[in-house]
TrEMBL record, chain B:
This is Sulfonate ABC transporter ATP-binding protein. Residues 13-226 form the ABC transporter domain. Keywords: ATP-binding, Cell membrane, Membrane, Nucleotide-binding, Translocase, Transport. GO terms for molecular function: ATP binding; ATP hydrolysis activity. The keyword Phosphoprotein does not apply. The keyword Membrane applies. Pfam families: ABC_tran. It comes from the Bacteria. It comes from Streptomyces canus.
């Protein structure tokens, strides 16, 4: 009995082809710790090549040499001082640029007069490569800290302004209508609809600004500086110390990564309403 | 109509010679209309007949539209749009309370539309029907004297729409606002409204009072007569053959 039943159920499979699963075209499930895999592999290759004696130690020192040099620079106190100087410059410039970018974006996004005065000016400013302003700024502000902070602030404020302003002017018209229907005051409208609606754009600008502040710092410190990480690397170039240069690059990289992750963490907290979309 | 006579004496909305035009094209052509307080009115018309223009005029949302005429409306007006228009960055309860305060009132309104327990949800997490319920709750919180609805169920599936019809009718019975419901769905107008207006070329072509008890069924044969008159006014002839 059971055999006949089995024969009956199997029978149609002979004439009608069995459904085969289609070939998947999406890349599939994400590998664990995927973002780290590439860098770790690169590090392993570097270490292996150094150990095998395939790399010229003067050009690319072994990873452990870099670590040892870093530890040495740290303990004799020069590295912490340089890091602190660089951090101070980046942070001061960043904060000034952040405030300027947000204030200008609000002024230009919320009033037609502000837009007429500000938007064109900022876009003109954007057209001039900021690093091209260095000679002029040195003449105006001297070669001290002020000019470095000013350049970093300019590098930071532009992406923050552009993205925040775009988000402000892109607020859905339907929400403006809703605010009118619900009888919101102008202040309540800005606080409850404009600002939250512009936050996603602001965070895009913020991340670009953070990266920009490090970029500006590197250039400034390698051109005109007597202290800071860039200066340390510039000196090392003169003395042929490639390990010191690599220490500097690692520190820059770590700071860039940490600051970007910090912004992303804040973004995820503040824009938690968006998480429901991506997850 | 007779059953409501005693409460229909006060006029909620009054239009006198209301004219609106876009780029020289007249959309509303001198409309005169009285809506008594507490009346449920549906406004039918082809797309482009000016029904949304009329609603937006009553809502005071036509900022840059050329027009003339006299228009009076109550102070507390709520609008329900075709899309729920919930702010995605505010939780449902905060959306309901947009522009007002009184958390308890907001919770009550959500319970009335059957969304109790969803106060803390994000609008993204709601289905289309739930989002439109939340929009109804938002309009109720303000205790409107006039509820304007611009094809509020147009984007919902047929099953949800039937449930929403019952809900809207129930809410109207409880709160007694005047209602002006813009729709292109003849059946929706007949089932819900006590008076149906047909807008034709910028003028009210037909003003029909539907004197049938609620809840109404789509299968009520008497409603079929109203249906045919409305379709005729809209220039549609039904061919059952």
């Amino acid at each position: 009995m059971t055999t006949t039943e089995a024969a009956v159920t199997v029978a149609p499979a002979k004439d009608t082809p069995q459904v085969r699963r289609r070939r998947r075209l999406s890349p599939g499930r994400r590998l664990p710790a995927a973002r780290l895999a590439g860098p770790v592999l690169l590090l392993a290759l570097w270490a292996a090549a150094s150990a095998a004696g395939q790399l010229d130690p003067a050009a690319i020192p072994a990873p452990w040499t870099v670590v040892r040099t870093g530890a040495h620079l740290w303990t004799d106190g020069t590295l912490p001082t340089d890091i602190l100087t660089s951090l101070q410059r980046a942070a001061t410039g960043f904060v000034i640029g952040l405030v300027a970018g947000v204030v200008l974006a609000l002024a230009s996004g919320l009033s037609r007069t502000g837009e007429a005065l500000i938007d064109g000016t900022v876009n003109l400013n954007r057209a001039i490569p900021t690093l091209g302003l260095i000679p002029l700024f040195i003449l105006w502000l001297g070669i001290g800290e002020t000019f470095k902070v000013a350049i970093i602030a300019i590098v930071v404020y532009i992406p923050i302004y552009l993205n925040t302003h775009a988000a402000l002017s892109g607020i859905d018209h339907r929400f403006v209508e809703l605010a009118e229907v619900q009888g919101l005051s102008r202040f309540a409208f800005v606080r409850q609809i404009v600002v939250p609606g512009a936050l996603p754009g602001f965070f895009v600008g913020l991340r670009l600004g953070v990266t920009g502040s490090w970029l500006g710092l590197v250039v400034l410190e390698q051109i005109n500086a007597t202290s800071g990480l860039g200066y340390m690397m510039f000196q090392a170039q003169n003395y042929g110390q490639s390990d010191v240069i690599l220490v500097g690059l690692v520190v820059y990289g770590v700071f860039g990564l940490v600051s970007d992750s910090a912004v992303r963490l804040v973004e995820r907290r503040v824009l938690s309403w968006r998480r429901t979309l991506s997850s | 109509m007779a059953t409501h006579t005693e409460q229909l004496t006060r006029v909620a909305v009054q239009l006198r010679g209301l004219t609106r035009s876009f780029d020289g094209r007249t959309v509303l052509d001198g409309i005169d209309l009285d809506i008594p307080a507490g009346q449920f009115v549906a406004l039918l018309g082809h797309s482009g007949s000016g029904k949304s223009t009329l609603l937006r005029a009553v809502a005071g949302l036509d900022h840059e539209v050329v027009g003339s005429g006299r228009l009076t409306a109550p102070e507390r007006v709520s609008v329900v749009f075709q899309d729920s228009r919930l702010l995605p960055w505010r939780r449902v309860l905060d959306n309901v309370l947009l522009g007002t305060d009184g958390e308890d009132r907001g919770r009550e309104a959500l319970a009335e539309v059957g969304l109790q327990g969803r106060e803390r949800a994000w609008p993204n997490e709601l289905s289309g029907g739930e989002a439109q319920r939340a929009a109804l709750a938002r309009s109720l919180v303000r205790e409107p004297e006039l509820l304007l609805a611009d094809e509020p169920f147009g984007a919902l599936d047929a099953l949800t729409r039937i449930k929403m019809h019952a809900l809207l009718r129930e809410l109207w019975k409880r709160h007694q606002p005047s209602v002006l419901l813009v729709t292109h769905d003849v059946d929706e107008a007949i089932v819900l409204a006590d008076r149906v207006l047909v807008l034709e070329q910028g003028r009210i072509g037909l003003d029909l009072t539907i004197d049938r008890p609620h809840p109404r069924s789509y299968r009520d044969p008497l409603l079929g007569e109203y249906r045919e008159r409305l379709l005729a006014a809209l220039g549609v002839t039904e061919d059952h053959a």
